[in-house]
Design a protein that fits this description.
The complex is a heterodimer of chains A (206) and B (99). By secondary structure, chain A is mainly α. The longest helix of chain A has 32 residues. Chain A starts with a helix and ends with a helix. Chain A has seven helices and no strands. Chain B is built from four helices and three strands. The mean pLDDT of chain B is 86. By secondary structure, chain B is an alpha+beta fold. Chain B is elongated and about 55 Å long. Chain B starts with 14 loop residues before the first helix and ends with a helix. The relative contact order of chain B is 0.21. The chains are: A mainly alpha (206), B alpha+beta (99). The interface between A and B is medium-sized, with 20 and 20 residues.
Chain lengths: 206, 99
């Protein structure tokens, strides 16, 4: 009987250490909620400016219009705010759990999500250059979804489902031109918030 | 042969050594500080267990530098991988034999 218990304890130890050392599991649900709120804020601000400066169809040719500049700024600010707030909550959680924030598991996670994201950034940038505005929202959702699916192997497995939903939204958006901002808000805003709440409920609720 | 305990590797008797091997099995290389945080042991304790695993030929040590600081990383050897898998099989047998 004693042997059995010892073997079980040993196996549980092995499993725990293998999990902890290969996956970065300190991603906080609050990070998802915070990033989602930033995205909604960004989408709302963008919608506001689009209302103020209506897109003037044929007059814009090559040169960046004022609206374009504002929207790029809003996008950059939104990304920074979302990234920072997501980082803060995850940092706090990993401190609480005594897991290194910048350990090899975090590095692997970051690298594996950065590869599809970087490729996506080039695609989106080229689309901006070519003026293919209708495809920017769907492709950013699609590349983000791919990044999440790829990164999910190195963090909480649920991230994969968040990725699938982002992909689904992105693909649908390909056939719904002119509704990019709405899909963006749904994907980067609403989905993140739902994901964050679910993860918080599952892992952090005390 | 019916006694599964024979196949349990004495070297992996300690939880710390088992922990080191578990971590190294799923990572190509880990440095000293990460192992320390992962297994939650003191420097001296970890060092002595690493030494014995190394002497058994189960892990290999690579000494390097990051800037001026030494960075020692550890990885599992072929022999270590085999021994660890055998140990896992023996644990499995042990549990099965009781049911």
């Amino acid at each position: 009987m004693d042997n059995q218990e010892q073997s079980l304890a040993a196996i549980q130890d092995i499993k725990r250490i293998m999990e902890r050392s290969s996956r970065f599991i300190s991603l906080s649900g609050w990070s998802g909620i915070a990033a989602g709120l930033c995205a909604l804020g960004g989408a709302w601000t963008a919608a506001h400016y689009i209302g103020v400066y209506p897109v003037s169809g044929p007059t814009r040719q090559g040169s960046t219009t004022l609206l374009e500049g504002i929207l790029l700024l809003v996008a950059a600010a939104t990304f920074m705010a979302a990234f920072l707030s997501a980082f803060v909550f995850t940092y706090l959680r990993s401190r609480k759990e005594g897991v290194p924030v910048w350990g090899s598991s975090a590095q692997r996670l970051l690298f594996n999500t950065a590869v599809p994201l970087l490729a996506g950034a080039f695609v989106v940038y080229r689309m901006l250059e070519l003026g293919e505005y209708g495809l920017i929202a769907p492709s950013s959702l699609i590349f983000y979804g791919l990044a999440l699916v790829n990164g999910s192997k190195y963090t909480l497995g649920e991230v994969r489902y968040l990725g699938y939903f982002q992909l689904l939204l992105g693909v649908i958006n390909l056939w719904v031109p002119g509704r990019g901002l709405l899909f963006w808000a749904l994907g980067f805003g609403v989905l993140h918030i739902i994901y964050g709440i679910v993860m918080w409920w599952k892992y952090e609720r005390k | 042969m019916k006694n599964p305990i024979e196949h349990l590797n004495k070297v992996f008797d300690s939880r710390i050594r088992l922990g080191i091997m578990s971590a190294l099995m799923v990572n190509t290389a880990i440095n000293f500080n990460e192992l320390k945080e992962l297994i939650a042991v003191t420097d001296g304790n970890l060092a002595s267990h690493l030494k014995s695993l190394e002497e058994n030929g189960f892990i290999k040590v690579q000494k390097g530098f990051i800037g001026r600081k030494t960075n020692t990383t550890y990885s599992v050897t072929k022999a270590g991988e085999k021994a660890f898998k055998q140990h896992l099989d023996a644990l499995e047998q042990m549990i099965k034999s009781i049911n």
